Amino acid sequence: MKATSRMFTLLLLSMFLLVGLSVAGSWEIDHVNQVATASHSNEFPVGAKRGEQSLAIERIRNWIMIVQGLSLIACGALYALGIRLRNKARREQREREAADLALEMRVEERTRELRKEVEERRLIEHLHRGQRRIVEMLSAPDDLKPEDILRFLADTVAARNQGWECALHLIDRRGKSLRLAACSEVTERLKGYFESVGTEYADSPECQASASGETHIVEHLNEIGLEWSEVLAASGVFSAWSIPFSANGSSSLAGTLTVYSRSRRKPSAHELEMSESAAKLAALIIEHRRLRSELIHNAYLDLMTGLPNRRGGVEAIDAAIVKADGHRGSVAVIWIDINRFKRINDQYGHEAGDHVLRTIAERLRRSPLNTGTVARMGEDEFLVVIPGTEDSLDTVEISRRLGTAIAKPIYAGAARIMVSACIGSCIYPKDGGTAEILERNADFAMLRAKSSGESYCVFSPGMSEEANEAMEIEESLGVALEKNYLRLVYQPLYATDGELTGFEALLRFHHPRLGNIPPARFIPVAEETRLIVPIGNWVLREACQQLRSWHEAGLPRVRMAVNISVLQFARDDFADTVARTFSECGLEPEHLILELTESVIMEDFASVVSQMNLLRQCGVHIALDDFGTGYSSLSYIHRIPVDMLKIDRSFVERLADPDGTRPIVEAVIAMAKHLGLHVVAEGVETVEQQHILQQAGCQGFQGYLFERPLPPDEAESCLRASITTPFAKPTIQTGGGGLAVA
Ligand code: C2E
Ligand code: CA
Ligand code: CA
What CATH number belongs to 146-299? Predict the structure, then answer.
């Protein structure tokens, strides 16, 4: 611009110069003419000189005229150029001004945009702050009510704009009407509208949004002329928009969030977006509440069986006590423990185990006598709480029926699983005044049933002490091996001719405070805690070492029978453990007899049989212990690879009774013989029993009649004595194919 104006000034100057020149030229011409005239008239001489002079003057005049002409042309050209330049400058100026204006407008527009952006950002931050606070509220341990959090949300939305109010409505359970859950602080009148809108104004924005599932905006609600819009307008509300929301993960609507504006307006896209975000937050709060109540519900529920859990069980006792107190009633508390459940899990897998538990839960729940509550108290423990009167609650009968329901076979895939239970019971108020005491006493009674090999037991005072003992036993069993609380005693086994053929190793547990504890009490505990596996391995090694030392001492090469728990036998490495033990002890495998109870056979039959075959191939003998007490012994005995049957003491005991077990025992012995099995009778206490057994063809005896279980040194003496005297004590003479006590 400056350069153009400078150029323009220069041109003007040049033009003035040229005009000046041409004026000067004209003046010069005039001057020359004057001079010429003057010289013509006065001073110049006539003749040639005068002709030369006029020629020169003529020339000058011509020159001057030419210069004058040229100056004028130049002047014209310069003028034209100057005009053009000036126009161009003006145009440029105009363009610049237009550009400046456009820039200003753009700047203004951008400023507006930025202001809007800042405002929006503030809005977002406002909402984010609210959101953060809501999340904090939701995760707060002090457990705020969801209504309080929704209220905070409504306040957050309303506080965003001075002319705004916010209400949150939830759809009732039947999905029919809206109920006010929370709103920002408003006048009573407006609140009255919020409270009744869901039931009274079906065409209100809230109801329309919840019915259509879409955002509903009303810009000029005072122009609608409906009842609801008039109520709102009377409260100073002129526009409203309602946004429906569903709880996360659910397709059905949960409620609406509505913004009420005191200025007549349509929400901007951003305000709408913000309102929608707030509605999503409301959904989150609702979802959180649902999950929380589910969690609380689950805290009292066992998810696997659907029964109340331990907490629920204790609450059920508490509730029954409160009810019973009201009419002087009673409550039966029954504790059920599934026998050897761990083994079911090990043997058939956890899925089958779960199926067993679910089936038992269902059977208990459906039990017709059960008018109370069934709860799952532990992995394989159930509790039944039955209200009634002391006379009506026959806990023995109830326990018996529950036990029968449980004992029916359970099918899991191809497996047929037999389950039994130990059941203990007690009665409120007789046996305890609180849920805790009743639960404990029913448990004590159950433990008593377990330790005495019974299925049911009713609580009696004094059991608590015993139960405490059981706990003490359990604790000390864990350290029994390292603290040397365990010992083995050996009970001789005899052939019919009185020859001592072997010993059965029997475990003894000496507790430092409780003294000697019988195996019937501690073996079930060891099995429950699975301590029987390391303990059983110790028994095996100890018995093998003992036998080896007797062999080394040159005593008769008798056999050693060792009792094997089903938990030991179920282990894959059991055959290896056995093989390693006798090879380490330097013992011939054929000197070892493994005594297995019938319960082993009830496990996975095929794998049990293959394990037995493996052991027998090594040369180990296998005896079936307690024969006759188990399930359907006779039906499978021909299919299992055993060498020996040990007829259970309970059969021997009633052998001589008029309606005793003699026919059964005779049939068993005959069948065993037929199968080529060696038969031993255990628990032989009388000569009469011995006679009957011998006549029936029994080939071995064990019992107090001959010898009690003996400590190692006495057992050794017995073995030594047997070289010369069969049936060393008491003296038994053989004769005429029979045996007689001397
Ligand atoms: P069991 O294998 O049937 O052992 C025979 C039981 O009968 C022994 O009781 C023995 O002392 C007892 N007994 C022997 N003869 C007579 C008799 O004439 N009359 C009477 N009334 N009883 C007699 P104990 O030693 O108390 O053992 C009980 C059970 O404990 C055993 O029964 C066995 O099942 C288990 N047990 C003992 N030691 C072990 C062991 O080391 N491992 C495992 N897994 N179980 C064992
Ligand atoms: Ca045995
Ligand atoms: Ca036995």
Answer: 3.30.450.40
